[in-house]
Here is the input.
Amino acid sequence: MRIAVVGLGFMGLTHLKAYKRIPGVEIGAVSCNDPKVLAGDLSSIQGNLDVAGEAVDFQSAQKFADALECVREADVDAVDLCLPTAMHAPIAIAALRAGKHVLVEKPMALDAAQCDEMMAEAEKAGRLLMSAQVLRFFPAYVPLIEAAQTGKLGEPRHALFRRRCAAPGWSAWLTNKSTSGGGVFDLLIHDVDMALVCFGMPTAVSATGYEDLPAGVDMLTAQLHYPSGFAVTITGGWHLPSNYPFSMEYTVVGQDAAIEYSSAGRPPHWYGRGEERALPLSDVDGYQAEIEYFVHCIQTGAKPERCTPQSSAAAVKLTRLLEEARARQGEMLPCPLSL
Here is the structure.
């Protein structure tokens, strides 16, 4: 199978490393508008995770400075889009029309209309479309998904998802809201997606927070309200252009058990009635597992049931509704969305 990686920043390099570990997969094309990077020098790449830049051999790959030309002309079976969010919809649609399968980084697109257009084009083209909502494959989050979906926790009573980092200094496009959607949209969509996969769509939402992207501040504390009275809290965002460390965590409490995790030194732990135990985790990196799943779905003709485009589109739509709720500073808004 031949893959084109379109966009060679932090996430593009992360995906390249994953493909290199999969037998039978070849990087058939790459695309970047930086000639130095396109020549294989990715040593300056930075991000909010511990992924070091390095030199990459692109000798056997077609090289394109233009993303649109790449997805239309490259001799590949699938494209992996690691581009600024504003480019996701037009480039994905062009790739689908060119007969390629598409993996597109999260957020799937900037808004509901773009997501719907992408899904319609994938259906028309008969090609696989998947958005890279990687937490669904992260070892620390997989036990939570399994416990929530199978009812092992009992009736849900409390859930908290938190994610925060410094305002990114490695990619200027992230601080441009028309390009990235903003800090809260780009970052907390992970946790919105987790809430959806674990608990479904809420019936109402409320939120508070503050946004000043030029100052590197974009914060949100939101609640997703469910008919039983249960609520999910999602909080976090950008904490100034500083050395503030990236971290993510969750606490979920059910009638019968609780499960908790923090990237700041607390591996996933199960707390039941009269029992406490560390949870066994896969040793496969979440990005690796995500990429392997995408490749497997193409090879077998299966739909990406673990991470459907419909669910990723729902995460975009709900995150936008939370931003609207933040603008109302605490007012409860009905949620008319569905999965």
User: Anything to note?
Assistant: The mean pLDDT is 95. The chain is about 30% helix and 30% strand. The longest helix spans residues 309-327. The radius of gyration is 20 Å.
